[in-house]
Amino acid sequence: MSHIIQIANLYKSFGKTKVLQGIDLNFEASKISVVLGPNGSGKTTLIKSILGMVIPESGSIKVMGTEIQNQWAYRANISYLPQIANFPANLTVQELVNMITDLRGKAAHEESDLINDFGLGPFMKIRLTNLSGGTKQKVNILLAFMYDSPIMMLDEPTNGLDPVALIRLKALINRKKAEGKSFLITTHIMQLVEELADEIVFILEGLVYFKGTVDSLKKTFDEPNIEKAIAKILLKNNVV
Amino acid sequence: MLKILKYSFFDLIRSKWSYVYFFFYLVISSSLLYLSGDISKVIISLMNIILILVPLIASIFGVMYYYNSREFTELLLAQPIKRTNIFLGQYIGLAVSLSSSLLFGLGIPFLVFGIFRSSEIWNFIILIVTGIFLTFIFSAISFLVALKNENRLKGFGIVIFLWMFMAIIYDGLFLLSLIVFKEYPLETISLILSMLNPIDLSRILILLKLDISALMGYTGAVFRKFFGTDTGLLLSTLILIMWTVLPVWAIVRVSGRKNF
Fold it and tell me: Do B59 and B158 touch, CB atoms closer than 8 A?
């Protein structure tokens, strides 16, 4: 099986807080990997390290076989949906889309389908500052799915979405997976994990605590659903 | 980088503060021109305004723009763009948009008043060039401060303090030191001290060009005696360039290592 992202011995601390303490992790191609862990366990730091936004102290990260340190061109293979959607206030949605397309130097893909699916049509000419939180998140999704990148990293993609948009997002993720895209998702919505995840990576105190399928997680901790299994891990480790 | 620059510039040029800044200069320079009618005097009055106001506005805009676009910067950082280009593009976009408010705000009234037919044209150009230098210097410094400080209040505080120090406190300390050490030869030390402050340096540059001894003050006079008008102009321009390049270099360095 091919590894699309390879992480070896990754360390990162912010001041005295040790966030990543030797992460060894491989993500497989064309799968949906969900990264779980309590707040502050280093999920976002891990994703940002892969994107080169956080610079690790030591360790190596390879994306599609190439070491990413001090590189930037590899990001053309990655689409990222950040946790907080905040955009330049004076631009309209259409201008933002045009701008990111221009910056990526790659034509948009299925743009009008996505705009229809998430009901963004009426908002395209509106300035971003006047959009509600949920609509901003939809713009965020549009931007992440528009460029047909082989790797999709979604940080809390369901934030602020209404049920219709949520169902469409899940369908979209499944469709893109069938097209061969690799997903790396963080979320706190366990239902989403049950429905989507091929693989769960549980991070605890900067280390990979568990890696495997949903079923193996339930089996390992002898619980009927993920929520309880996760709660068990947390209680056992005195995290909460 | 040019793409980032273009988008930052257009984003800023559409914000209402750019217009406020532009109209401020437009109103001030038109009314001064209308009231006095003497271009030379107006340039001197404007110099005093520019030397204080340009650094202040550039500082405040610099930190504000950086902090406000932080999430957007994160979006850019996830795109296949080199890190340095993002920050340099944003910085230059900011400095260029502030500079154009200054250029057009002052330029239009002077143009209407007939600056091109006047002998003061070079003095006016020096005034504008100095203003643009100060914009680039202080927006670079404030960008750097904002990059180094996650805490917005702290960033604002540092930038305002730096402005106050260079625009107001520095001169006071300078004068004080001249009085205290008046027994000693002070030419060299005062020359160095004035080079260490871009606002002082700009004042000297403009006054050297205007050639008004009465307003030049001690350092200006020393400057002219030491270097002559032409060398003085050249030297102060070179140091202003250094003042611009250094913080920009630091922006490149700091942004390369920063975590987002």
Answer: no
Quickly state the pLDDT bin for B253 (edges 50, 70, 90).
very high
Residue ranges of chain B whose CB lies within 8 Å of a chain A CB: 3-4, 7, 11, 14-15, 68-72, 74-83, 257-260
**Closest CA in chain A for residue B73:** A87
In CATH, A3-236 is 3.40.50.150: no
User: Is some CB atom of chain B closer than 8 A to the CB atom of A84?
Assistant: yes
CA gap A186, A43 in Å, rounded: 7
Distance from CA of B12 to the nearest CA of A (A): 8
Instruction: Enter the ipTM.
Output: 0.83
Question: For residue B232, is it left (φ>0), alpha (ψ between -120 and 50) or beta?
Answer: alpha
Cβ atoms within 10 Å, residue B181 = 12
Query: What pLDDT does residue A141 have?
Result: 92
**pTM metric for this prediction:** 0.86
Token representation of residue A184: 């790396």
Where exactly are the structural domains of chain A? 3-236
